[in-house]
Write a structure and sequence with these properties.
By secondary structure, this protein is an alpha/beta fold. It is about 30% helix and about 20% strand. The chain starts with 17 loop residues before the first helix and ends with a helix.
Length: about 350
């Protein structure tokens, strides 16, 4: 590990106590090594493998359909990734011959309900649609010498107030109805009546997404060849569309998001893992109604606001409205790949700032 005075020290981590590791981290040393600065324009990947003596830095990506990704790659029509590259954007994604580049230091893994959908090096090749992982992953590969694993575990049409409700969330009353707490069913029922459970419960998708991610980590070598140890370096969250259709869920979004951050860190035994989230692209600051409540909640958890002192230096929010090329979250932003690339890039830069913070 590299200390702040530039001296490199090699220590077997197994011989260090938790207090030792915490001290070294505060002195500028950590197992991922020093971070490079993020350039305004990313260079082409150099094709080199990561330093495999360092633990794999795992970033868990969660959310709903826009985290899955609907940015179109192929085609000459404006808004596709091919068109954007031809117009001079994202030149790090292609080599001198116009072929898609591949990062050999970043693995791109996607699972959904315990099924593998992607397990490869980070590249656009053989990809029909992209999500924010391409922009995010290139930033992480650029700033980290350690191996990087992007672990996307999510599915579309899921709300934080119901499907992704984190453990510990309690039931509550809203406009004469009782809304389910974690592992309760159905979503809501009239106050004073007995709930009639359905084949789903509050937090079911949270349980499935986190369990699917843990299954990957339990078989790390399958997803990052040659890897030994890993660390959960951060969480990336882009969600909120489904909650905007339910006033009760929109009103509880901030409370649920705070609990989500804390619960993910607990469930993955990663109390120092960073957390970044992006807002819905169509929602502007000052927007009324449910969308405005969700936006305010997403911005409120940013550690720099000071509202949650415990999140200072370890949670950041990305205001996605200026990055959106149009459309809305329920229409997947018209499939515009620029939106997905720029939101991913912004999430990556936000994560890099958190990782670099002392």
């Amino acid at each position: 590990m590299t200390l702040s005075n530039g001296r490199t020290v090699t220590i077997a981590q197994d011989n260090l106590s938790e207090a030792d590791l915490e001290f070294l981290d505060t002195q500028g040393g950590n197992s991922r090594g020093p971070l490079k600065e993020v350039p305004a324009v990313l260079p082409d990947p150099d094709g080199r493998e990561a330093d495999m003596s360092k633990p794999v830095q795992v970033f868990i990506l969660m959310g709903q359909s826009n985290m899955l990704g609907f940015g179109r790659v192929a085609g000459a029509k404006a808004g596709t990734l091919e068109s954007a590259v031809k117009d001079g954007k994202y030149q790090h994604l292609v080599d001198d011959d116009g072929a898609w580049t591949t990062r050999k230091d970043v693995r791109n893994v996607r699972v959904m309900n315990f099924k593998d959908y992607k397990n490869d090096w980070l590249t656009v090749a053989n990809t029909k649609n992209i999500g924010p992982e391409i922009g995010f992953g290139h930033i992480m590969g650029e700033v980290l010498d350690a191996p990087v694993l992007l672990l996307k575990s999510c599915i579309g049409n899921r709300s934080l107030g119901w499907d992704l409700l984190p453990p510990g969330s309690k039931q509550f009353e809203f406009e004469g109805k009782i809304y389910a707490g974690y592992k309760e069913s159905p979503l809501s029922w009239d106050k004073g009546t007995e709930p009639k459970p359905i084949g789903w419960y509050a937090g079911k998708q949270y349980d499935d997404d986190t369990a699917s991610a843990r299954k990957v980590l339990e078989n790390l070598g399958k997803y990052y060849p040659g890897a030994g140890k890993h660390e959960i370096a951060g969480f990336v969250f882009w969600q909120g569309d489904k909650d905007r259709y339910n006033a009760a869920h929109a009103g509880r979004y901030e409370q649920n998001l705070v609990r989500l951050i804390e619960q993910l860190r607990t469930d993955f035994d990663a109390p120092k893992a960073k957390f970044v989230c992006a807002t819905l692209g169509q929602t502007r600051k000052g927007a009324p109604g449910n969308e405005g409540k969700i936006l305010e909640a997403q911005l409120a958890v940013d550690g720099e606001t000071g509202k949650y002192e415990k999140f200072r230096g370890n949670v950041a929010s990305v205001y996605a409205n200026p990055l959106s090329q149009g459309g809305a979250s329920n229409g997947h932003y018209g499939g515009n790949a620029i939106t997905y690339m720029d939101v991913g890039d912004a999430l990556g830069r936000a994560m890099a700032r958190l990782l670099a913070a002392k």
